[in-house]
């Protein structure tokens, strides 16, 4: 019996989403709203940003699907592919909140050097991917395309909050590692069952436990994108909340400024009655 793309989701993706929803942590109301908004935003961005890239690679033959595994297509990609964009983001985000992370700003978490160095490093990796595609458009098509597509976005994330990420690596390392390992494992199963196949002509041929290295790189980078995005979103929100609190306290201090007492005293003197 052939396992379809939608059947793959029913067996390996939706049960994990359900489990993570069931075991989701209890978050304060404010943080829960931010988490929901973050998941919705990341899912939307994943769908919009991945769709043209994914379809272009399918049209170039970077991978193809087994006979009878696809129920319907939109453009060149199966419907199950579009679902995967959103479901993967959901799994990664729910796991990140299950594992927990602290978005509280700390002293020095906007330091320039780690942000600039990290951003330049990711941009260099993206440029290397572009060179691979140009130098060997067949053999390195998939690997180079992944690097060109993902690394500039991670560079932008690092430019914004790289110093903060560097100060608390355990949180995002755990957030990235566990979903990546699971997605790589089930991807290996899907390839083994013929749900989809990576074309040898457009890949390096290198494998990790039978999985094309390009697939491992893809899941590592996409998971990193989501984890960084959610952590940095909360970090920015907390910073803005603190700034708003300080502005509110400053405004309150202005309203109780000592000159107010002087004004009241002057009024009392004019009325001929004590100010108090």
TrEMBL record:
<keyword id="KW-1133">Transmembrane helix</keyword>
<dbReference type="GO" id="GO:0016117">
    <property type="term" value="P:carotenoid biosynthetic process"/>
</dbReference>
<dbReference type="GO" id="GO:0016020">
    <property type="term" value="C:membrane"/>
</dbReference>
<feature type="transmembrane region" description="Helical">
    <location>
        <begin position="113"/>
        <end position="134"/>
    </location>
</feature>
<feature type="transmembrane region" description="Helical">
    <location>
        <begin position="172"/>
        <end position="196"/>
    </location>
</feature>
<keyword id="KW-0125">Carotenoid biosynthesis</keyword>
<protein>
    <submittedName>
        <fullName>Lycopene cyclase domain-containing protein</fullName>
    </submittedName>
</protein>
<comment type="pathway">
    <text>Carotenoid biosynthesis.</text>
</comment>
<keyword id="KW-0472">Membrane</keyword>
<dbReference type="InterPro" id="IPR017825">
    <property type="entry name" value="Lycopene_cyclase_dom"/>
</dbReference>
<feature type="transmembrane region" description="Helical">
    <location>
        <begin position="216"/>
        <end position="238"/>
    </location>
</feature>
<feature type="transmembrane region" description="Helical">
    <location>
        <begin position="82"/>
        <end position="101"/>
    </location>
</feature>
<feature type="region of interest" description="Disordered">
    <location>
        <begin position="246"/>
        <end position="276"/>
    </location>
</feature>
<keyword id="KW-0413">Isomerase</keyword>
<feature type="transmembrane region" description="Helical">
    <location>
        <begin position="34"/>
        <end position="53"/>
    </location>
</feature>
<dbReference type="GO" id="GO:0045436">
    <property type="term" value="F:lycopene beta cyclase activity"/>
</dbReference>
<keyword id="KW-0812">Transmembrane</keyword>
<feature type="transmembrane region" description="Helical">
    <location>
        <begin position="6"/>
        <end position="22"/>
    </location>
</feature>
<feature type="transmembrane region" description="Helical">
    <location>
        <begin position="140"/>
        <end position="160"/>
    </location>
</feature>
């Amino acid at each position: 019996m052939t396992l379809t793309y939608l059947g793959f989701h029913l067996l390996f993706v939706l049960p994990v989403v359900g489990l993570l929803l069931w075991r989701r942590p209890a978050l304060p109301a404010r943080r829960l709203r931010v988490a929901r908004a973050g998941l919705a935003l990341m899912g939307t961005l994943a769908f919009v940003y991945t769709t043209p890239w994914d379809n272009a690679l399918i049209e170039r033959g970077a991978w193809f699907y087994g006979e009878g595994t696809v129920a319907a297509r939109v453009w060149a990609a199966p419907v199950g592919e579009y679902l995967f964009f959103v479901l993967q983001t959901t799994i990664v985000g729910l796991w990140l909140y299950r594992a927990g992370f602290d978005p509280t700003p700390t002293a020095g978490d906007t330091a320039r050097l780690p942000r600039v160095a990290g951003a330049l490093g990711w941009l260099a990796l993206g440029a290397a991917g572009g060179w691979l595609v140009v130098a060997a458009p067949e053999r390195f098509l998939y690997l180079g395309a992944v690097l060109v597509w993902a690394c500039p976005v991670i560079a932008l994330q690092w430019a914004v909050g790289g110093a903060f990420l560097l100060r608390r690596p355990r949180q995002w390392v755990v957030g990235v590692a566990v979903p990546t390992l699971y997605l790589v494992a089930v991807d290996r199963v899907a390839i083994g069952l013929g749900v989809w196949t990576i074309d040898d002509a457009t890949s390096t041929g290198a494998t990790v436990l039978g999985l094309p290295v390009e697939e491992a790189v893809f899941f590592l980078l996409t998971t990193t994108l989501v984890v960084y995005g959610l952590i940095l979103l909360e970090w920015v929100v907390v910073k803005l909340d603190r700034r708003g609190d300080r502005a509110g306290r400053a405004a309150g201090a202005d309203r109780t400024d000592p000159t107010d007492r002087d004004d009241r005293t002057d009024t009392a003197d004019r009325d001929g009655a004590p100010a108090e």
